[in-house]
């Protein structure tokens, strides 16, 4: 469990305060102790630690925006898009750009560095687009009145056509979220219900959805090819799919993790996640310093450590079939690690997802399957509407519970979890 906790602290401190190096060194120490008798492993751990220290330090510096001129003098900014634009409040779009230069009111061009949030109105912008925005620079970001697309790669032009084609087949908010990873307006019905019921993670395009795509592809290809070739072809199609919908941070994490599980044979599940984070930090730096990445990794840290401990502990007191209890334990594990972050960023959190997450997840799986099939046949739209109604009903029931606006309920959950584990350990020792 210590590895998962330290990895969570590394990611959290990378995004929130400049102390990540402490937890990187502690995590390295844990692995050095574990592999203290293997010389090659020790050298490799030290090398990776140095690379990770350098990379995380560099990423933290890039997050800070700095100017050598007054903010009110800026009339336009130019930079490269580092996250696909998403719909914000009032139908506006928001994207993150890495600054190249600024145009000042006196006609001068000045250099600037760092990343900045830009709010604008217009067509979607994609990762890698080079754009010039004209408008007003504020402490919270850049409010654009107009923009000019300076350069768009051939890949992004293909992406634009692909997204337009799929969008013409699926035209509701939930389908756009689950198939294309396009977040609807934050005030849309499904977004509000998911947030208020604590189930936003189920709707975010991530490993759960990627595993479903992979399973469908392998199921279709297996009668034609051997199991191994079916998986390889499936992986190739998933690679193309990710290129088409764009480098969504949590999707990149899911894709890398699936590769790590395929290539490596490690002692603990959490070790796969540590390697996954290292690879993503070293080679996909633009996707690592985001809140969605933080929540994605931290929830998996909880899922890979807490449920097994709780399941073993509960077995000491009562025998419950894993099929019934595991979904609840998985949700508890995710909540234990994500609630502090949710509370820090949003000021509240929801515990009802312990009851609704598993059921809502199954309904989302069914909806995704129907959604994929509906691309080829519009006759399934009626069934999609019915499943959507069921999902809304579940999320509404979860929303009836009051949002927690202090950490008292979280502390109770932590203490209860630790008490169950410790009492079970003591009971085992007394036998």
TrEMBL record:
<feature type="domain" description="ComEC/Rec2-related protein">
    <location>
        <begin position="178"/>
        <end position="397"/>
    </location>
</feature>
<keyword id="KW-1133">Transmembrane helix</keyword>
<keyword id="KW-0472">Membrane</keyword>
<dbReference type="Pfam" id="PF03772">
    <property type="entry name" value="Competence"/>
</dbReference>
<dbReference type="GO" id="GO:0005886">
    <property type="term" value="C:plasma membrane"/>
</dbReference>
<dbReference type="Pfam" id="PF13567">
    <property type="entry name" value="DUF4131"/>
</dbReference>
<keyword id="KW-0812">Transmembrane</keyword>
<feature type="transmembrane region" description="Helical">
    <location>
        <begin position="228"/>
        <end position="245"/>
    </location>
</feature>
<dbReference type="InterPro" id="IPR025405">
    <property type="entry name" value="DUF4131"/>
</dbReference>
<feature type="transmembrane region" description="Helical">
    <location>
        <begin position="288"/>
        <end position="311"/>
    </location>
</feature>
<protein>
    <submittedName>
        <fullName>ComEC family competence protein</fullName>
    </submittedName>
</protein>
<dbReference type="InterPro" id="IPR052159">
    <property type="entry name" value="Competence_DNA_uptake"/>
</dbReference>
<dbReference type="InterPro" id="IPR004477">
    <property type="entry name" value="ComEC_N"/>
</dbReference>
<feature type="transmembrane region" description="Helical">
    <location>
        <begin position="409"/>
        <end position="426"/>
    </location>
</feature>
<keyword id="KW-1003">Cell membrane</keyword>
<feature type="transmembrane region" description="Helical">
    <location>
        <begin position="323"/>
        <end position="347"/>
    </location>
</feature>
<feature type="transmembrane region" description="Helical">
    <location>
        <begin position="354"/>
        <end position="376"/>
    </location>
</feature>
<feature type="domain" description="DUF4131">
    <location>
        <begin position="22"/>
        <end position="138"/>
    </location>
</feature>
<feature type="transmembrane region" description="Helical">
    <location>
        <begin position="39"/>
        <end position="57"/>
    </location>
</feature>
<feature type="transmembrane region" description="Helical">
    <location>
        <begin position="6"/>
        <end position="32"/>
    </location>
</feature>
<feature type="transmembrane region" description="Helical">
    <location>
        <begin position="202"/>
        <end position="221"/>
    </location>
</feature>
């Amino acid at each position: 469990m210590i590895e998962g906790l330290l990895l969570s602290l590394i990611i959290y401190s990378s995004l929130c305060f400049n102390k990540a190096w402490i937890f990187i060194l502690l995590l390295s120490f844990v692995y050095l102790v574990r592999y203290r008798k293997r010389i090659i492993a020790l050298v490799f751990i030290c090398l990776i630690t140095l690379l990770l220290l350098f990379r995380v330090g560099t990423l933290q510096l890039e997050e800070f925006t700095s100017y050598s001129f007054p903010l009110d003098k800026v009339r336009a900014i130019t930079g490269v898009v580092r996250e696909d634009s998403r719909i914000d409040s009032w139908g506006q779009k928001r994207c993150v750009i890495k600054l190249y230069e600024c145009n000042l009111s006196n006609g001068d061009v000045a250099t600037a560095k760092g990343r900045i949030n830009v709010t604008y109105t217009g067509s979607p912008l994609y990762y890698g687009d080079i754009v010039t925005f004209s408008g007003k620079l504020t402490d919270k970001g850049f409010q654009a009145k107009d923009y000019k697309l300076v350069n768009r790669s051939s890949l992004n032009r293909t992406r634009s056509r692909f997204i337009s084609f799929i969008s013409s087949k699926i035209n509701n908010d939930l389908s756009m979220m689950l198939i294309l990873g396009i977040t609807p307006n934050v005030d849309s019905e499904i977004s509000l219900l998911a947030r208020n019921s604590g189930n936003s993670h189920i709707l975010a395009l991530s490993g759960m959805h990627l595993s479903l795509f992979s399973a469908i592809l392998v199921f279709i290809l297996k009668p034609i090819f051997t199991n191994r070739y079916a998986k390889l072809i499936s992986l190739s199609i998933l690679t193309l799919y990710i290129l088409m919908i764009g480098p969504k941070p949590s999707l990149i994490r899911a894709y890398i993790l699936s590769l790590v599980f395929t290539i490596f044979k490690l002692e603990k599940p959490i070790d796969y996640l540590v390697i996954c984070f290292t690879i993503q930090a070293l080679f996909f730096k633009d996707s690592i310093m985001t809140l969605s990445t933080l929540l994605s990794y931290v929830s998996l840290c909880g899922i890979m450590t807490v449920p097994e401990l709780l399941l073993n502990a509960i077995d000491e007191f009562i025998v419950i079939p894993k099929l019934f209890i595991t979904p609840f334990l998985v949700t508890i594990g995710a909540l234990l690690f994500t609630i502090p972050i949710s509370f820090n960023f949003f000021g509240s959190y929801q515990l009802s997802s312990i009851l609704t997450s598993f059921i809502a997840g199954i309904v989302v799986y069914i909806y995704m399957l129907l959604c994929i099939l509906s691309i080829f046949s519009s006759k399934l739209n009626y069934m999609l509407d019915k499943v959507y109604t069921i999902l809304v009903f579940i999320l509404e029931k979860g929303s009836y519970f009051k949002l927690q606006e202090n950490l008292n309920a979280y502390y109770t959950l932590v203490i209860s979890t630790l008490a169950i584990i410790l009492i079970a350990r003591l009971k085992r020792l007394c036998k």
